[in-house]
Specification:
Layout lengths: L36 H6 L3 H4 L1 E3 L45 H9 L9 E3 L18 E3 L5 H4 L5 H11 L3 E11 L10 E4 L7 E2 L4 E7 L10 E3 L11 E2 L13 E2 L9 E3 L6 E4 L5 E3 L8 E10 L3 E2 L8 H15 L6 E2 L6 E2 L4
Antiparallel strand pairs: 1-12, 2-3, 3-4, 4-14, 5-13, 6-15, 7-12, 7-14, 8-11, 8-13, 9-10, 16-17
């Protein structure tokens, strides 16, 4: 069954997803996307490590027509012609303020995209909260915001995403992360985790994350930390870590990963993009600088992926939390998704 939840197609506004074939193998699993072999050619070693960088010569900041993507202020790039494999493409919108400007407008409540989720650090109390960039640590599910979502349609990103998902691409989850200077309680760090914990669709090999640095990122401001090769293992149980300073909402972490495995700190320049597998164990450290560290990301999947029932699995805890949050924030009750092909009802990610 084709993915069709509220994040799967943005209610018809993504402009990139095409109708996929069934792609099912003899054991009821989805086969690898037909273009998956391209990943090995364009990203040597990706099958071993589980992550890869976009070639430096194709950094978003290295291309004149897209340099403004990660600059503030400045307009987002617009593409005159759609990629050949796109089923539809929105070229009607005129150039407008760039992502940082739009992010700031969202933080100040000047614009309120439908279903967007605005998050603040656990150390910021409700009484202290004043709508501003310094209070917001993350916005996610921005599929209804044309400015931010245009990142997800950039050909410079999608041509590599297609290597992992095949041509029928769905944007499933979006985030703009504004990692704040740490308060001293280390709450700005993100525990080591696997992104698949948050997704109730499969197969994992048809999902990929594109994560773009909006400024220089290193260990001082909390760069990505990865455990290469861990994408070959299973999805591990996750839960809130027992940290003294507190943990941000939905920041689940793996409870039993091997801490002796060598970590890689992914140092990136503005405009660099890293692509990684949803089973890759990764996290990020505290931001020890006085500035905010921004990055924008999207998880993409093959449109032929299918939802699973998380009841009785290690994902049941996050599933319940997301359903409760959707009810609290948006008044959404009884979230279900009917799989067209199987005729079964599953609990999707809200």
């Amino acid at each position: 069954g084709r993915l069709q939840g509220p994040l799967a197609a943005g209610r018809g506004k993504l402009g990139w997803a095409g109708r996929a074939g069934s792609g099912r193998g003899g054991e009821g699993r989805l086969c690898a996307p037909p273009s998956a072999w391209l990943a090995g050619r364009r990203f040597p070693g990706v099958s071993r490590s589980g992550y890869a960088r976009q070639p430096p010569r194709e950094s978003l900041s290295g291309r004149a027509e897209v340099d403004r993507l990660v600059s503030s202020p400045g307009p987002w790039p617009r593409t005159a012609q759609p990629p050949a494999s796109a089923s539809c493409w929105d070229t009607s919108a005129a150039p407008s303020p760039g992502p940082s400007n739009e992010f700031e407008r969202i933080c100040r409540n000047e614009v309120k995209p439908e279903r967007i989720m605005i998050m603040r650090d656990v150390t910021i109390g409700k009484s202290e909260y004043v709508p501003s960039e310094k209070m917001v640590t993350k916005v996610q599910d921005f599929q209804e915001d044309k400015e931010l979502f245009s990142y997800c349609t950039l050909p410079e990103i999608l041509k590599y995403v297609e290597c992992f998902t095949g041509p029928n691409i769905m944007a499933m989850h979006t985030m703009l992360i504004n990692k704040p200077p740490d308060s001293g309680k280390k709450t700005s760090r993100h525990p080591m985790h696997q992104d698949l914990h948050y997704f109730c669709f499969r197969p994992s090999n048809s999902i990929v994350c594109a994560w773009t640095a909006m400024e220089h990122v290193d260990q001082s401001n909390g760069c990505l930390t990865v455990l290469p090769g861990t994408h070959k293992g299973p999805l591990k149980p996750h839960d809130y870590p027992q940290w003294e300073g507190g943990v941000n909402i939905m920041y689940h972490g793996i409870q039993d990963y091997d801490e002796t495995v060598a970590r890689m700190h992914v140092v990136m320049e503005k405009g660099d993009t890293v692509f990684f597998h949803p089973l890759l164990i990764h996290g990020s450290g505290s931001n020890k600088t006085k500035g905010f560290r921004k990055a924008i990301s999207c998880h993409f999947a093959d449109a032929a992926c299918h939802y699973i029932d998380v009841k009785g699995t290690s994902q049941e805890n996050i599933g319940k939390e997301i359903v409760e949050l959707a009810n609290k924030l948006h008044g959404i009750k009884g979230i279900t998704l009917k799989d067209e092909q199987e005729g079964a009802t599953f609990q999707p990610r809200a």
